[in-house]
């Protein structure tokens, strides 16, 4: 069986954007692949080193979000990144194989540096996290990496590092492939391209019915449409983007779109139907959350998965050291 490796930085609860970008693919692929999910706490610290409490408290939350989303803890291997020291070893070896200049061209890192105000002075750990991410993937011999679009440059760095490593030291590491979600990126409820807690524009997998209703009913729609009888624009309208992503009743969605374009449906009805669709979507997620929402259970899942991951990583690092002619004592 081929192996999947993907993961999340534990910096906050997972939201519908994570579902569209990555979680839905994981759930779909878990039966066909040996699936490893990384709780990337070391990477989370690269831009949260001064807020360790935030990372710590989100480790089990992100694990629970993954399980609630539908990943079966009986099948899937959940790994705590910091508890696999072989990843740090491989990061150091791979760091020899890429230039600072090349790392500086990574578009995702560049955007993040701007957003986080790191333009003037970027911490080395953050700047080189794509190398550490390449180690995350390679240290488990992963074949496939299901990710959102923003992660593609990192998988490209990984592929280049693997090719370079294998070229110099002989065939050792597996060259992985990215699997990018079909849907693309989900906008925030306010039409902002980025979802964040501070903007209050994200809907979480753990959202309560009350907050969900409030967020949906105040969602941004077509700003040029004043009355329900005005013809409206469907394309690029967040309410319809969400319908397309989360309402499986395509007849209903098409009917709403048609009437919206003609000006024979109000925003309220469109939003109420979206709310109903999201309630249906979230129901099984909430059920699984309540079943697994127990610290001991979650710790046990994480401990068992991490141990398994560490064994895989130890094998790979053994191969890596042999290939690099490192003296073993
Ligand atoms: N960079 C990813 C994110 O921000 C998290 C991540 C860490 C990851 N290591 C990974 C994703 C390895 C895929 C593979 O969401």
Question: Overview of this structure, please?
Answer:
This protein has 329 residues and is mainly alpha-helical. It folds into two domains: 213 residues, HUPs (Rossmann fold), CATH 3.40.50.620; 80 residues, Tyrosyl-Transfer RNA Synthetase (Orthogonal Bundle). Helices cover 55% and strands 7% of the residues. It contains 14 helices and five strands. The strands form two sheets. The protein has a three-stranded parallel β-sheet with strand order 1-2-3. Strands 4-5 form a two-stranded parallel sheet. Helix 1 links the parallel strand 1 and strand 2. The protein is elongated. The relative contact order is 0.14. The mean pLDDT is 97. It binds tryptophan.
Distance between the termini: 34 Å
Order of helices and strands: EHEHHEHHHHHEHEHHHHH
Largest sheet at a glance?
A: 3 strands, parallel
User: Strand-residue fraction?
Assistant: 5-15%
Low-confidence stretches: none
Fraction in helix: 40-55%
- What is the CATH class name of the largest domain? Alpha Beta
Q: Write down the domain tally.
A: 2
Arithmetic mean pLDDT:
97
GO biological process, one term: tryptophanyl-tRNA aminoacylation
Family: Belongs to the class-I aminoacyl-tRNA synthetase family.
Catalytic activity: tRNA(Trp) + L-tryptophan + ATP = L-tryptophyl-tRNA(Trp) + AMP + diphosphate + H(+)
Organism: candidate division WS6 bacterium OLB20
